[in-house]
Design goal:
The relative contact order is 0.14. The chain has two domains: 121 residues, NAD(P)-binding Rossmann-like Domain (Rossmann fold, 3-Layer(aba) Sandwich), CATH 3.40.50; 175 residues, NAD(P)-binding Rossmann-like Domain (Rossmann fold). The protein has a seven-stranded parallel sheet with strand order 8-7-6-9-10-11-12. A five-stranded parallel sheet has the order 2-1-3-4-5. By secondary structure, it is an alpha/beta fold. Helices cover 33% and strands 15% of the residues. β10, α10 and β11 form a beta-alpha-beta unit.
Length: 323
């Protein structure tokens, strides 16, 4: 029997339901406690693992060292920034993500957030709940008239670009290299920023992109620009966002991600009137969650069947062998 460490923070009854198709072929191990000690104890006897999508239990070098039998790590998300890929690769652990599972969900959230910022929907809702009637104070702008810049042109960036283009927006994008058949015009990074009324951040967090859009680059944005971040908080630092909002360079920001998650109580972003907040759930639609579960189970089943897994992200051969 293969042993699978399930590190996601889900109720045991949900874990049992998710892994029911593997009953009789694999044993599922849950951490006794939601801390590093519990994680390491579960990994100590695991052949396979499904990672923690919250990042609370990262697969760092210490976790890899605690897992001498681990042969395969399945991340139940696209991002692998909580994994030490070098340590995992050196240990011979094949790592896979769920590429494409939440692409539409995140892209639709980005478009919806841009609509909300343009029409100040969250601000108006708060005033109404307070008893106000801000009919003469709303203003707002129509999304189709905005120049939209997509920062990062992976699957989510491409999907978002297509949706914005379909709404009539002028779309430009930046990525490390231009993309054949891309929607919109490829621009150098600083040129993209200087011509984006709405900047949508979808690029993956890597050592090269951490802090990519700091105070200097935010200052390149047109006056009263809007920011939508569905990537990772570290790409556009929280303090830089706050400073740009307070200076008026940013007229609003829709943030699904933050440098530290959960966002601490009392953090200035929580009380800023021009910010639309979301708890890292842009990719958590019902359809996306089903897609993620489907990909996780398909890869685990492939391992048990002796077939190659899909969406390997660390360059190791996709056929997983018991260690």
């Amino acid at each position: 029997m293969w042993k699978i460490a399930a590190l996601m923070p889900l109720p045991p009854e949900v874990i049992e339901l998710v892994f029911a198709p593997l009953k009789g072929r694999a044993d599922v191990i849950l951490p006794a406690t939601r801390d590093r000690a519990g994680q390491h104890a579960a990994l100590a006897e695991a052949d396979l693992a499904v990672g923690d999508f919250t990042g609370e239990l990262p697969m760092d070098a210490a976790a890899v060292a605690a897992a001498p039998r681990l042969a395969f790590l399945q991340q139940p998300q696209v991002g692998v920034d909580t994994c030490d890929l070098d340590a995992l690769t050196a240990a011979g652990v094949v790592v896979a993500n769920t590429a494409g599972a939440n692409t539409r969900s995140v892209a639709e959230w980005a478009v919806g957030a841009a609509f909300a910022l343009c029409r100040r929907l969250a601000w108006v809702d708060r005033r109404m709940r307070e008893g106000g009637w801000p009919q003469l104070d709303i203003g707002g702008r129509e999304l189709h008239a905005q120049r939209v810049g997509i920062l990062g042109y992976g699957a989510i960036g491409a999907q978002a670009a297509g949706l914005f283009h379909a709404l009539g927006c002028r779309v430009s994008y930046w990525s490390r290299t231009p993309k054949d058949g891309a929607v919109g015009e490829y621009l150098a990074l600083d040129d993209l920023l200087s011509t984006s009324d709405v900047l949508v951040v979808t690029v993956a967090l890597t050592p090269e992109t951490e802090g990519l859009v700091g105070p200097e680059r935010l200052a390149l944005l047109p006056p009263n620009a809007l920011l939508v971040n569905v990537a990772r908080g570290g790409i556009v630092p929280d303090e830089a966002v706050l400073a740009a909002l307070d200076s008026g360079r940013l007229a609003g920001a829709a943030l699904d991600v933050f440098e530290g998650e959960p966002l601490p109580p009392g953090h200035p972003l929580r009380s800023h009137e021009q910010v639309l907040l979301s708890p890292h759930t842009a990719g958590a639609s019902a359809q996306a969650q089903m897609n993620v579960i489907g990909q996780v189970m398909a890869n685990l089943t492939a391992v048990l069947d002796g077939r190659p897994v899909e969406h390997v992200v660390n360059g190791l051969p996709p056929l997983v062998h018991r260690r």
